[in-house]
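Workshop exercise sheet. Pairs work together: one partner reads the sequence aloud, the other fills in the structure field after running the prediction. Swap roles for the next sheet.
Pair: D.N. / O.F.
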Amino acid sequence: MTADAETVAVMGPAHGAAQHATRAGLGPEAMLSFLGELAEHSGNVLFVRGVDGRYLFANTAFGELLGRSSEDIVGRTTHDLVPAEYADGYVEHDELILRDGQTRTVQETAVDGAGQVRHFTTHKFAVTAPDGRRFAVGGLCVDVTDVVVERHSRFESETRFRAVFDHAPIGQIYSLVGGPIESVNEPMARILGYRPDEIVGRPFADFARPAELDRIKTAAATLLSGQVRSTSAIRRLVHRDGHEVPVRVTSALLRDESGAPQWFVSMAADITDEERTQAELASAHAAAVSSSQRLRLMHAIAAAANEAGTADELAPRVLSLVREYTGWRWGALVAWSPDGSATIRYPHGALPPEALAAVTRLVPATDDQVTLHEVVAEQVDGVAVAVVPLLDGTPPARQAFVFVPPAPHLTEDHRTLLTLLGIEAARVVERESTARRLRDSEARFRAVFESSPLPMGLTLGDSGAYAAVNDALCALVGRPAEELVGHSVRDFVHPDDAARTDPAGAAALAAPDGRSTVELRLRHSDGHYVTVIISLAWMDGPDGVRQLLAQMHDVTASRTVEEIQRRQAEEDPLTGLANRSQLSRLLAAHGRAGRSCTALFLDLDGFKAINDTHGHDAGDEVLIEIARRLRAAVRVGDLVSRIGGDEFVVVCPIEADAVAATVAVADRIERALAEPVALDSATTAVTASIGLATGLVDPRHPQALVQRADAAMYQAKRLGKDRLEIYTPELHERTMTRRRTENVLRNAIAEDRFIVHYQPIVDLADERVVGVEALVRLVDDHNNLVPPATFIEVAEESGLVVPMGNWVLHESCRAVVALRERTGLPLTLSVNIAARQVARADFAQAVLRTLAETGLPEESLTLELTESALLEADVATLDQLVQLRDRGVVVGLDDFGTGYSSLSYLRSFPVSHLKVDRSFVAGLGRERGTADGASGSDDLAIVRSVIRLAEDLGLRWIAEGVETAEQRDVLRSLGRGLGQGYLWSRPVPADDLLDLLLPASVS
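Structure field:
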């Protein structure tokens, strides 16, 4: 086929267009021109797309649609020109037509050059070559956008209408003019109790009340006449179950395009709840009007009751008010006498004689017939009566308001009214009764007040001045009534108690029961004070003025006893200072408050000597004087306490930066103690060892501060007494070491971890062993021996030396008896005795019991005491030593010459031998001096003097610490005595002594 023929085929829908053109006498060029003109002037969009989807032809209308020229379209694909969502559909249609060759009309959408969506009805056909080959798709597009938009708008409008119609909150009905119901929504169907399909097709008259049909027809005629556009009315439609439903119906007429009437449309709202609410409002309004009238009446009755003082004053007013409100024909106040006869008073209205007689036959209500304010409605001889008892709090009622209503059955309104009348009348009766009782009570109170043995005073208002007092109060304070009336209790109260007088009255006023109590001290006319507990009670006086009644109970004697008991519990009976119990409470309070304090622990030096020299009465005088000086030296708020014989503790609360203030207190205490104390005609110097500790009081261990001060005091004792030592961390460490040692001692006593070593005592003349000295050793947790110097001092200070010493005495006696039996030697035993041991009241008996239990003869035991132990001994201790001496026990003086070395001790105490201290023996046989400055000749002179003194007094002597032959020879040259030391043996266990004892010589 030629190019011209193919072009003609493209431009024409029939494949034989070329032949037709030839027969018509037109050449191909003329035919193409004809077809082109036809495509341009057809008014429709024309196009041809090839099998590859590219446009082969597009007329001007197509180009204008897309905003392009025809030349710009040809050669492009559909996807080049329109969005893919539309182009995909075009291609799908084209492919279908190319496959089957069928002409199709399809709906297509495009976007014009302005970006607006356009809708088309497109007639598509296959373009076929002469040989039958389909090589393109032609299309003729008719723009139907306006039709589609209109159809869509109509659909949306109908959809909205149906939604409004179906889901409207009120009922809707569409009826043909002169015809049945065509449409009804669900709310309308619910109003009538039917399904919508049960209503459609029926006339509206089926659902209206017959009585309203004429009014409905008139309303329809009015709408048809065009006089109004709508009508509205309250109709009562008939529900499926037969009851009537009130609805508010609004109707309108709808006409067609020509103006002819077509439908009645009605909207109906169920107003059942609205009518019910209106009815309730109307009822409430009527009730409110009635309630207002009733309230005015009740107010008038209450006002009359407030103004009336008696039932007689109340009756005329309320009888009139009740009859005026109720319209009842008669009312009166009826009173019954004790014999039951009735008296009618203040009658209001008129009654026939027979009805009046019936009222007089009423009997008073009894307690099992009526409760407070109960209204009784009954018939008496055919006469209806309403009885309102006038109760004063307890039945039976002896008065009542009686009314004659039309019937015995009272309305709730009338019963409420009469109940209120009973309540208000009861208030009047109760007030009348109260006034009568008050008059009687006032008379009784006056009689009780004046004759009561309990002191009483009465004040008026808030003045505080007594308006009346009884004789008992006058006797209590020793003053006549004239001196008390017009005066306040503040004029007689102790100055320290004055601040509590006004708050006591205020507390009573604020208390729920108007009462309170207060304890005060009142000054007697002779000057002494009496302690009273005053019970205060506010009362209303007969004239309305408030009165304060004060009733007093004399507790002077009991408070005196309590004060004595308090002092006994909290004060030292000798000095009046705080005792240990009060000190503990104070420290605990400081601990809870988180307060810092300084504690000073004082121990008098040599106080025992004062007791021994001047007697215990003199010692008491010294303690009293020291207590007075301590009180004078401390500040206000500081506490001075006596916690033992001659031990005092001062506690000074301090601020964190005020330690210097308590040091100043300590200085004043030292200066105060420096002054001698006068005893009879003589004076004696008293010094003290003082320990000072400062810090925060531990609430868990409040005594720890005093314990630290105690440790510092012991340090002062060790350093020579008569001094003040401040607790330091180093002292703390020593204290802790001492405590650890003390714990070790306690455990050793409990676990029997002591052993005894023995050092031989020899006769210096021939060096025979004549006895042994028992020396205790401690075995520690590691089975090592602890030397005595480590624990003896702690044992003595802690008192553990007593059980330890008792064990050593018993064990050494047992061991020496065993040695005597094995060796046949009459060995003696020397045992060191501490001051605390010998001070015990049972010391002598304990020693003798030990000797009896072990079998050691009394004369074979020597008890060695230091000079300091003898210094602390009292008369009782001396008696025990004498008792032991008389039984044969030897008492020796250890370390003679190192202590006070008073010759009076040798005369006063039952001492049998002296022990020359090792410090003097060490210098014997040396020509040069010792480190302490003493020369060998000095030591020799001292030893010679001690030995000569002992021999002159008939005492034996023992030299200890003999370590060299030279020392032995010097001692031997000075006289006949005994010796012990490393020269012969160190202290060893008892079994190790056998090698020394069996030869009977250690030479």
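Discussion prompt: Residues 571-727 form a domain with the Alpha-Beta Plaits fold (CATH 3.30.70.270). What would you look at next?
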